[in-house]
Amino acid sequence: MPPQECKAAHQAHHPVRQAVPHQEWKAARKVHHRVSQAVHHQVPLYASGGARNHCCHRSMLYEARPSQRNGPNDSAPRRRPSSHTLPPRRTHPRSDLPTPPAPAATGGDAPNIIFFMADDMGFSDIGCYGGEINTPNLDTLADNGVRFTQFYNNAKCTTTRASILTGLYPRRGKGGLLRQNMVTLGEAMKRVGYRTALSGKWHLGSGETTHPYRRGFDEYYGLLGGCCHFCNPKQRDPQYKGGRIRNFGRNDKGLTEFPDGYYTTDAFTDHAIECIGKFSKKENPFFLHICYTAPHYPLHAKPEDIKQ
User: Residue 160: beta bridge partners?
Assistant: First the structure.
């Protein structure tokens, strides 16, 4: 179709978009809005095609009013308020969902799951992704398993673990990253018959509604905060970090004493091995989440490793 005919056809299909005097345009806009309201409430004023077009255009109606702007330089148009009222936001978990059956205790179909998480590690730091660091055990897992070639995170340790544990985008503001209307991975696994444990860093709270021992993990040992001294967790943070002592715990009890030669990475691993031995004595499957602080700062290493 020639350009002139295309333009004429477009103007015939969208009459309110034509260049008309201000008063006529104002009247046409009012008619357009009334038709959109009628279509929204399913009043049959037009055939289906026209109703669909007007319903689509309704969301593009804007009106800039000086009294509604944020300031004298704010010229962004404001969306016209809608007469449609959204349903109230759900503030509690759904209780009407059926409880899924637990896996058979002796069937052997449900696998044991060990889920590792390293804090702030670059994907190319380890050997199987071309890194210069010698990681033979991780390389073996990669050779005999699956390597991701595309992976996304939330660019920060706290928000990333919040997404992993809840399956949701991280929520800031009132309520924190872990709220009572969210289901954790530990809670979901327990619901289908798994025994659960978390070894290592948590950093999603330590209260009655956010402590890992209260949020789906039968066994917990590790750092409840974001980081600590690797060899002496009771040592205070530097002053520029607030000078506080980070919370450490085992199950629902706090820990303040640590033996000589203590090292967080080894301690988290020892607890994980202990849980595997404990869970293996029963037939129910287990889910073990191991969260290492390393290589999150302060990134301490043992003296013998530094010498290498």
Answer: none
Token digits of residue 95: 């209780």
CATH class of this structure's domain 113-307: alpha beta
Question: Which residue's entry shows tokens 């290498």?
Answer: 308
* CA 55 to centroid of chain Cα atoms: 34
Cα–Cα distances (Å) from 108 to 99, 157, 181, in that order, read: 21, 35, 32
pLDDT digits (tens, 9 = 90+) for 141-152: 999 998 988 888
Where in the chain are all domains bearing CATH 3.40.720.10?
113-307
Q: H/E element holding 306?
A: helix 303-307
- Active-site residue numbers? 157, 203
Q: How far apart are CA 267 and CA 82, in angstroms?
A: 57
- Residue 23's pLDDT band, with cuts at 50, 70 and 90, is low
User: What tokens does 196 get?
Assistant: 């659960």
Question: Cβ(220)–Cβ(213) under 8 Å?
Answer: yes
Name the residue type at position 267.
A
- Half-sphere exposure (CA, 13 Å, Cβ side) for 284? 14
Number of H helices, E strands in the chain: 8, 8
The CA distance from 89 to 107, in Å, is 41
Match 């021992």 to its residue by tokens: 213
Q: What is the DSSP letter of 115?
A: E
Instruction: Using the Cα atoms of residue 225, residue 229, residue 235 and residue 237 in order, give the sign of their dihedral.
Output: negative
The per-residue pLDDT for range 100-130, each reduced to its tens digit, is 555 554 446 899 999 999 988 888 899 999 9
